[in-house]
Amino acid sequence: MSYAQLEALGRKLEAVDHAIAILSADEATNMPVGGGEKRAEAVAHLAGLRHETFTAPEIADWLDAAKSEDLSAEQKLSLAEFERVYTNATCLPADFVREQTRTNMRSEQLWRDLRAKNDWAGFAPALESVVALAREEAAMRADKLGLAPYDAMMEQYDPGNRAAEIAPIFDQLKTFLVDFVPEALENQADLPLKPVTGPFAIEDQRALGLAMMAALGFDFTHGRLDVSHHPFCGGVPTDVRMTTRYRTDEFLTALMGILHETGHALYEQGLPRDLSHMPVGKARGMAIHESQSLFVEQQLARTEPFWHWALPHLQEHLGADALPGWMAQDVLARVNMVERGFIRVDADEVTYPLHIILRFEIEQDLISGALSVVDLPEVWDAKMEAYLGLKTIDNPADGPMQDVHWPAGAFGYFPSYTLGAMMAAQQWAAIEKAHPSLNDDIARGDFHAVNAWRSEHIWQQASRYSTPELLTRATGAPLDPQFFIAHLKKRYG
Amino acid sequence: MSYAQLEALGRKLEAVDHAIAILSADEATNMPVGGGEKRAEAVAHLAGLRHETFTAPEIADWLDAAKSEDLSAEQKLSLAEFERVYTNATCLPADFVREQTRTNMRSEQLWRDLRAKNDWAGFAPALESVVALAREEAAMRADKLGLAPYDAMMEQYDPGNRAAEIAPIFDQLKTFLVDFVPEALENQADLPLKPVTGPFAIEDQRALGLAMMAALGFDFTHGRLDVSHHPFCGGVPTDVRMTTRYRTDEFLTALMGILHETGHALYEQGLPRDLSHMPVGKARGMAIHESQSLFVEQQLARTEPFWHWALPHLQEHLGADALPGWMAQDVLARVNMVERGFIRVDADEVTYPLHIILRFEIEQDLISGALSVVDLPEVWDAKMEAYLGLKTIDNPADGPMQDVHWPAGAFGYFPSYTLGAMMAAQQWAAIEKAHPSLNDDIARGDFHAVNAWRSEHIWQQASRYSTPELLTRATGAPLDPQFFIAHLKKRYG
Ligand SMILES: [Zn+2]
Ligand SMILES: [Zn+2]
């Protein structure tokens, strides 16, 4: 039976993915520095092997044959998702992929060097090559998928994302934010900031993080918390590898990072176990994933009820002297600080979407050819000035050179971040409607209702539906920016 | 060029071996308990993949074709070792391997259960099946390799081991030990034992272990020390994963374990880097590996000069109060204690070889068919009584059921332990001859001479030569039990 052959194939791919995921987590958390070269070789070989396994010619036949087999409704969804993933994985010729991999890798390496030197002129030609190949890639994907080129690129990260639907939503949000950012800045102007008086011992911060993870529902029989230079949530659903990074003069950055990654981890741990080997059993995509991390970080944790519950734990683990006289509002004044800045990854939840919308607008024009790399700094500068009132023309390192995505050839990924933030707000609203006492629950550290709702409507749904369909099924309505706007108004208005 | 194809194949195998090694080390040191099932699936799949890759039919052609290519002397050695490994890996039919794997796995699982219950009668039928298949295996290996059946089994662990050469050596050693054990016991009778007064903090023990590892030459850019239930030395040469296990009431067990595993680690780290992907570049085998660990543990570390140097480090890390008034002899009185016991893994270096010789004698008869499983307890008991004066007939759990090797189907492995101990003594003698001031070096914590000699004569030789040839080339003479006997006489006589 062909469907059974697809299941066997899924198990093989799962094993290789398992190895790559654990090797990568180990590399970031445990590997001694001299192990890097052989580790890179091993992972590259496994990735090549995965590609070979997944692109074997008989798979297309299995997919076709399975369609006429007697499948349950569940299996039909699974088959459709298998075919979607297979098509995305095989729609580019092997020669093209090799050339593109080489080009993008060289560009990324050059970017690491030249960003540090703020050398746009030196980097631009490499980015030109990357963009040229990305245009070719988009055209080939579009052709194979029957989508517009930029949509075909987004399809890799969030199946169902369409620029025609996202653009008006982002426009509403942009219009709102351009006016709202100054208002939020003004509102916080006279909030008093309590000093953070360290040092905070790393063991204490770790114990606090573990306590928060456990309270939020992290399953320590299926995951752990380590330290790495860049925090991440990796591993596999049965063995989630989460990391953070501590500093001793300050603890809130690490803690908020832990809360964010816990959101990702709960999603992975909450996926349907018996489908873990099939594409339909995986996490839906980047936007939904980010909606789960931001749900915990922004919807749950940047709130008064949460800190009402969490503050005693903070004091228990960090010592009563560590936060003298702090109240929930004192934490919130720090973690919800709004600030206009150049750097996306440092941005707060109010200004962050403007960084994304700028990139969304620009990368569509890069892919369509309406914009050339050579004109990028000026376009970037003009938009930054219009949206955030900041000039970047003399500072490309903190302008169009700040992110790894484009130098590495990833176009169509950026929208997922802000789509995730909006989806998190919409999910919160849906849960609050179903459980009017939600904030009381949270003030008691009771996260059962939020987790039960998300388990049923998001985690257990895995990849049965496209990103927009999953959100619509979960919340009863398509993506609506008003939930996120209302959330910002309430918190910062 | 076929030799180049073998190199490419070697790199593929190295990548898969890398993944399996790191996944296994991670499993023992980091993996949360719920990750085990999927981890086992992933590793089993990678092992299957390795086997498929290595047994592809074209490899035999490459091996043949490479023989007529223009190869350097080094490449010829490499090719010969490649062929040897390939022949050993492919000499059993796939159906047989599947049946044997199933049988041995069931037997090992049953053994874990029934050993705890001391139930020999329940276990014997499973062991019968294992032995029956091992006899078939030995016959097939013998046929393919042109060796005697038991030699063909040993060949998997130590290429070149031949019972006809080992038996007279073991006989000399046995004859010596049967008389010498009572003498050693008598000699230690009036050695005073200083009390070990804990608790010893785990962080302190770890810092001490790391300091010892560094002094002995462990390269922390290519390895690390972790904790696991059963200590091991795993990973890959560029990323050696060593473990120990601590208790707080006592520190010597963990420390001696670290010293032993450091010996294994130095060997792996000292292998020729540019050959790591080829069979010729791997560690030679079990006996040579054990000779390297026992070299550090027994030849270097169970000595007065070593503790003359090490004792201040002990006191520095564990605190001056921890070992009040201890001298080198006080450590030696503890770590070199001789005791007759049932259990091989708990035995000291004087009695240990008798445990091995007993098994070596018995397993040859099991493989030849001269001994049936049903008669094993009586034969075991008779030999234990003759060699160590202990009765095991009523206690099979501590008799023939004590080790995992036979229940798991590993016959021909045991001799490697004692061959390693003898080789370590012979290597020590060779180094001492070349560096008469060796003990002075060690009393200063200077291990350059021993490491330089071992690097040149053992580590860098990797798998160029068979086990006996490697030892002969390194020390100038074939294995001679008198070095080990002299070592024991000097220490315990
Ligand atoms: Zn995230
Ligand atoms: Zn060992």
UniProtKB/TrEMBL annotation, chains A, B:
Keywords: Carboxypeptidase, Hydrolase, Metal-binding, Metalloprotease, Protease, Zinc. It comes from the Bacteria. It holds the Pfam family Peptidase_M32. Its cofactor is Zn(2+). PANTHER family: CARBOXYPEPTIDASE 1, METAL-DEPENDENT CARBOXYPEPTIDASE. Belongs to the peptidase M32 family. This is Metal-dependent carboxypeptidase. It comes from Pelagibacterium lentulum. The lineage of its organism: Bacteria, Pseudomonadati, Pseudomonadota, Alphaproteobacteria, Hyphomicrobiales.
